[in-house]
Design goal:
By secondary structure, the protein is of the alpha/beta class. It contains 4 helices and 5 strands; from the N terminus they run E-H-E-H-E-E-H-E-H. A 5-stranded parallel sheet has the order 1-5-4-2-3. The radius of gyration is 12 Å and the shape is globular. One of its GO terms (molecular function) is thiosulfate-cyanide sulfurtransferase activity. It comes from Microbacterium testaceum (Aureobacterium testaceum).
Length: about 100
């Protein structure tokens, strides 16, 4: 599985970012520019996924890793963000809410 750190993400990547946390988690604060597609509903929204390579983030990296594994098996070029939004915030990076 492809993975990057929150520091790599913060350094700048020209790729879409999918946040797979639940809507209330996303609303409480997320990485700027992220799009919310909750893990619990992603199977219903596969058509909303980008056609190009994209990154996937959650709170700590577990849910996003499972999503990346599943999507990669379906032919998507997805990369997990290790440490997730929790590490992003702990690193002092800006969030949107």
């Amino acid at each position: 599985m492809q993975s990057i750190s929150v520091h790599d993400l913060h350094a700048g990547r020209e790729r879409p970012l999918i946040d797979v946390r639940e809507e209330h988690e996303f609303a409480a604060g997320h990485v700027p520019g992220a799009v919310n597609l909750p893990m619990s509903t992603i199977g219903e929204h596969l058509d909303a996924l980008p056609g190009e390579p994209f990154d996937v983030i959650c709170q700590a990296g577990g849910r996003s890793a499972r999503v990346v594994e599943a999507l990669t098996a379906r032919g998507h070029d997805a990369t997990n963000v290790e440490g997730g939004t929790g590490e992003w915030i702990a690193s002092g990076y800006d969030v949107e809410s």
